[in-house]
Amino acid sequence: MNPALNQIAISGIRRFNDAVNGIPDMVRLTLGEPDFNTPEHIKLAAIEAIQADFSHYTANAGDPELRAAVAATWQSKYNLTYDPADEILVTVGATEAIAIALQGLCAPGDAVLVPAPVYPGYIPLLTLHQVTPIIIDTRANDFSLTPAMIDQAIAAHPEAHITGIILNYPNNPTGITYREEALRLLASACARHDLFILADEIYAELTYGQAHVSIARFARDRTVIISGLSKSHAMTGWRIGFLLAPAPITQALKKIHQYTVTAATTIAQRAGIEALVNGADDGAKMRVIYQQRRDFLLKALAEIGFSAIAPEGAFYLFAKLPARFAADSAAFCTDLAHADHLALIPGSAFGQAGEGYVRLSYAASDAQLHAAITRLRHYVATH
Question: Where is the Aminotransferase class I/classII large domain (predicted)?
Fold first, then answer.
């Protein structure tokens, strides 16, 4: 047994969600899963693919037609050019893309910078591969990373062999994102320190008031982009992710991908072609509704005594607990779940920098969000 397994645990998000699973009449704002169903035209494309006997392996890197659609999408939407033949991999969700990227880019004994609060899927993978995460607490700057923070983290760990940084934006759990000039400066800092950039841009389609800009625009040679269809097209269960990177990186990572999963599911890949070719605006329709939900929650939470920075992307609110609850977010969420049957994710699930906060997913119906606010208001008033 790999002894590193003793150092990692199931995600705090999943642990908490499972812990409150048996409580009846629960309103859940826990998991990062769209409440929308996959668009009809995508489902029909999958049915047609089954009937047409698309039941055999695709190329290890993915269906060439899907890779071409990914390349066309990133060119038209984000002004980036990737060769579908050797710079794009189709993976089993963005999760596999992250896993093979960290496994291939890092060697045992390396260290990687991780801005926090942090999505809990990264650090266990680093630990498993004997890579040290160096946490950068971004709370003092409203959860936004700066070049100075990178410089300071590296200066504070002169003994560490720091090779890369994980940059997730729009961010889970905070919803913050970065504008063009900020990305240009971050890219320059990464180049100065010779860091690879794992750019988890799975929420690129879900930004409010501004178009997403990829940091690969300014650091293409050192950036691995993580993307997929789960959030943009409400296709979480289809498990289709994308990895885009310069050919030497992509071809090296393809070896891990091949020996890990062979290839992503053929039928799901055919659905993915339909999603990108004929569903380019599917995410935009959902984004309008998400923004309305965000605005409702921001106003309602402020009235109850919670403060939150307005998310510029994704579908999460990272709300600061009122002072009397802030010492232990897990205790607050556990008691809230039992007392008023409302499930939120404790900020501690996203590392120490998340303590004192809770994450609310507004990938939920309007009825659920209104019920959640009613229950939260009652809990705060009675405790």
Answer: 25-376
Q: Are 93 and 239 in contact (CB under 8 A)?
A: yes
3-37+282-382, which class in CATH?
alpha beta
For 40-278, CATH gives 3.40.640.10
Locus of tokens 């300071």: 152
Q: Domain locations in the chain?
A: 3-37+282-382, 40-278
d(CA 56, CA 247): 26
pLDDT value, residue 223: 98
CA distance 245 to 222: 8
**φ, ψ (nearest 5 deg) of residue 137:** -75, 115
HSE-CB for 186 with a 13 A CA cutoff: 30
Q: Give the type of residue at 212.
A: H
Q: Structure pTM?
A: 0.96
pLDDT score of 58: 98
Q: Are strands 110-116 and 161-168 parallel, antiparallel or unpaired?
A: parallel
